[in-house]
Design a protein that fits this description.
This protein is an alpha+beta fold and 356 residues long. It is 33% helix and 23% strand. It has helices spanning 3-15, 26-33, 58-64, 77-83, 102-111, 125-128, 133-153, 163-176, 238-257, 264-277; strands spanning 20-23, 40-45, 49-53, 69-72, 92-96, 116-120, 181-182, 187-190, 211-216, 218-220, 223-224, 227-232, 289-291, 298-302, 315-318, 321-324, 328-331, 334-339, 342-345. The model has no long low-confidence stretch (mean pLDDT 96).
Length: 356
């Protein structure tokens, strides 16, 4: 892992007047150490960095967490902190406020009653939301595989197929083309099911004349992709085409507006105002997008309530949609990276209306 990540964290310890920081969330552990296993914690002080694991991961940790002091915890990981005398009683220790659970926090307080623990919201996310070249390359590789799967799945979809059949094929193709697996369970919705933005894939059969929304992504070396396209099975209804064109225009304008310095809520408003102006504002029922990286959904959230300003290195989704109860829905989603003062679309998958 790049050493500058640890340098930044140690500098932030000083800024926050902390003696150490404890990380329990696996994606954040992977970000700072390179270790991709489970049942582990990271403990970073101003001088040292420790990875506590159970012995099942000894070889993996040595291969992945270069430069870390790897310690095997015989009992619980938190008790390992005590066994190795890593925490002093007078220390101020930050913990990942977004992810540590109450039982873990209580366990720490019980084991170290004189130590001060401070939940810090966004401490690690401040760094993970800005991707470096290596991270962007991994996301682009995942995006490329998902684009390839989309192109192939278009040959597979036919009237009479179950939504679940298509979802299973997506999973198979992701693995066939080199992904570690799905980034999340593929979403395939058709007809009236498409009116639910994130409905579960069902045993519904796809009918001629319906829209089908495909939302899926894959994982490559821990980093994720996320693509959504809506296609037409058979001759599309004129109303469906109208909705598609509105959503496509909203996404185009939002991508054009995405750049360093624009706030998340301002970007959300670009797409939302266009859809509202077309008369369908009440049917765009979710935020415009989200950050993507080691997690499928991570900061920055691109929503009407988020004042955070986009920065160089942010990788986000832009995915406006319109959902009409009893009829269906349209969503179009791409992954974009904010860099060189602009937004670069990572996906190459076709966005013109597709009729199968």
């Amino acid at each position: 892992m790049p050493t500058n990540r640890i340098v930044k964290i140690k500098n932030k310890l000083t800024e926050n007047k902390l003696d150490a920081f404890l990380i329990t969330f696996p994606p954040h552990i992977r970000y700072v150490s390179g270790f991709a296993g489970t049942s582990c914690i990271c403990f970073i002080t101003k001088r040292n960095k420790f990875l506590l694991i159970d012995e099942r991961y000894s070889v993996q940790a040595k291969n992945q967490a270069h430069g870390w002091k790897i310690l095997v915890a015989e009992d619980s990981l938190f008790e390992g902190l005590k066994k190795y005398n890593l925490i002093r009683s007078d220390w101020k220790v930050g913990v990942d406020g977004n992810n540590i659970v109450l039982t873990q926090y209580k366990s720490l307080k019980k084991l170290f009653p004189e130590t001060h623990f401070y939940p810090k919201v966004g401490f690690i996310e401040e760094f993970t939301s800005i991707k470096d070249k290596t991270e962007i390359a991994k996301i682009k590789k995942a995006v490329g595989i998902t684009d390839r799967v989309f192109e192939k799945i278009l040959e597979y979809i036919k009237p009479g197929m179950y939504e679940s059949e298509i979802a299973v094929e997506i999973t198979y193709l992701h693995r066939k083309y080199g992904a570690a697996g799905d980034a999340f369970k593929p979403i395939v919705t058709s007809g009236v099911n498409g009116a639910m933005p994130h409905a579960s894939t069902s045993e519904k059969k796809i009918k001629n004349g319906e829209m089908v929304t495909l939302d899926f992504g894959c994982t490559v070396d821990g980093y994720n992709s996320d693509l959504t396209r809506t296609v037409f099975v058979g001759k599309p209804k004129s109303f469906a085409l109208k909705l598609y064109k509105i959503v496509a225009e909203a996404q185009k304008h939002a991508i054009g507006a995405a750049k360093p310095g624009i706030s998340a809520r301002e970007l959300d408003a670009v797409a939302r105002n266009l859809i509202r102006g077309a008369g369908y504002g009440d049917y765009f029922t979710h935020s415009l997008g989200h950050g993507i990286g080691l997690q499928v959904h991570e900061p920055p959230r691109v929503s009407a309530k988020n004042k955070v300003v986009l920065q160089e290195g942010n990788v986000i989704t832009i995915e406006p949609g319109i959902y009409i109860p009893g009829f269906g829905g349209v969503r179009i989603e791409d992954d974009v990276v904010i860099r060189n003062g602009d937004a670069e679309i990572l996906n190459k998958a076709i966005k013109e209306p597709i009729v199968i």
